[in-house]
Amino acid sequence: MLYLILGLLLFVGTHSVRIVADGWRTRSRARLGPLRWRALYTLLSLLGFVLMAWGFGQARQMPVQLWSPPLGLRHLALLLTLLSFVLLAAAYVPGNRIKARLHHPMTAAVMFWALAHLLSNGNLAHVLLFGTFLVWALLVFMAARKRDVRDNIRYSQGTTGATGITVALGVALWIAFTLWLHGLLIGVRPFG
Question: Model-level pTM greater than 0.85?
C-alpha cells in the first residue's frame, strides 16, 4: 500500500502544481526552460505512475475489503465509463460540441472514470486510487474553468458532424476496451 500512496502523491502532486502553485510553476518553467521543465515533469509523472501501478498491483493481491458493491452499481459503472470514453474522445476530436460546452472534457472523463470504479469496487486500494483521482479531477476541472473565465478563453461552438464522430469514436473505444483491452491489460473483464 505504501508504494500506491507514494505513487499517488508523486503523480497527482506533479499534475496539481498548476492548481496549488501556478506562480511557482511559471517561474520555475521560465528558469529551467520549457524543455527541461517538461523533461522533469515527465520523469516525475512516470515515476509516480510506475509506483502507483506497482503499488496497486501489490495491494490487489491482499485486498482489504471495505464493502461489497451491489450488482446495480457495476451496471452504473459501465454507463459511466461509456460516458468517460465519449468525453475522452471529445478532448481530441476538433470542433465538437461537447468540448465547446465543457471546455475540459478529458478532466471530466477522469471524474466519471474514477467515480465508476469507486462505485463498483469496495476495497481499500480502489478507494485510495479512484477516490484520489476523483477529488483531483474535480479540483482540476474547477480550477481550469476559473482560469478560462479569468483569461476570457472562448471555445468554438462545434459542429454536429464533429460531435457525431466524437460520440462514435468514444463508443467504439469503450467497446474495444470493455470487451477486450480491460481484461488484457488489467486482468478484469467488466462483462465477466
Answer: yes
Read off the amino acid at residue 62.
M
Residue-wise DSSP of 108-154: HHHHHHHHHHHHH--BHHHHHHHHHHHHHHHHHHHHHHHHHHHTT--
Q: Which residue has the cell 479540483?
A: 139
For residue 51, the model assigns a pLDDT of 97
Residue labelled with grid coordinates 478484469: 188
**What residue ranges of the chain have pLDDT lower than 70?**
192
| Residues pairing with 116 in the sheet | none
The count of domains in the chain is: 2
Pair 50, 92 in one domain: no
SS3 52: helix
